[in-house]
Specification:
Layout lengths: L1 H5 L2 H7 L2 H35 L1 H5 L5 H13 L7 H8 L3 E3 L8 E3 L5 H17 L1 H12 L4 H10 L4 H5 L11
Antiparallel strand pairs: 1-2
Helix pairs in contact: 3-5, 5-7, 7-8
Length: 177
């Protein structure tokens, strides 16, 4: 459909009114341009991420885009990377108490770098689907009665999230010093 809208008048004319066709054609060209720009940026970013963080890329569930988000968060705030807890706060994954009455629970901090938080979330979701040790962990937690949301929160904020990433040299707590 994008191809017919972006290039051909005949196919577009038969399905859409005149104004809709013009708007759709403009949007189709914009989508094609942005796709090309995305491909060009990937060619530039991939070698930079590979050179800067090969250990990060070696982790299960971490691709070039996720690694780039984490590197940007760490690079923009090197003065904040003094400990695991500081990195967790930077990424917005530090646990905060959200208990009420007899119920004791925690929630994740809503502050921090949203892109870094999204990167950690993507790592956890990927691992939950395709990483055998994580699958075993998820099954054990479900047997304990935890919901999927609670399991994700535990994985993001725990050993599978920020603490593991701090061990990567380019995200090391000493990188900003």
């Amino acid at each position: 459909m994008l191809t017919s809208l972006g290039v051909g008048r005949q196919a577009a004319r038969s399905r859409f009114p005149k104004r809709s066709t013009a708007c759709s054609r403009t949007l189709a060209r914009r989508v094609a341009y942005l796709d090309d720009e995305l491909d060009n940026l990937a060619v530039v970013i991939r070698p930079l991420v590979q050179r800067t963080a090969p250990g990060l890329l070696a982790m299960h569930g971490v691709g070039y885009d996720v690694a780039a988000k984490l590197l940007v968060a760490a690079g923009d705030n090197p003065h904040r990377l003094r400990s695991e807890a500081a990195f967790a706060h930077l990424c917005g994954v530090a646990p905060l108490e959200a208990s009420s009455g007899k119920t004791r629970r925690h929630r994740l901090n809503r502050g921090g770098d949203r892109q870094a938080n999204n990167a950690l979330y993507r790592i956890v979701i990927t691992r939950m689907a395709s990483h055998p040790p994580t699958k075993i962990y998820v099954a054990r937690r479900r047997a304990e009665g935890k919901s999927t949301g609670e399991i994700i929160r535990i994985l993001i904020g725990g050993v599978w999230g920020a603490r593991r990433l701090v061990e990567v040299p380019c995200l090391s707590v000493n990188a900003g010093r």
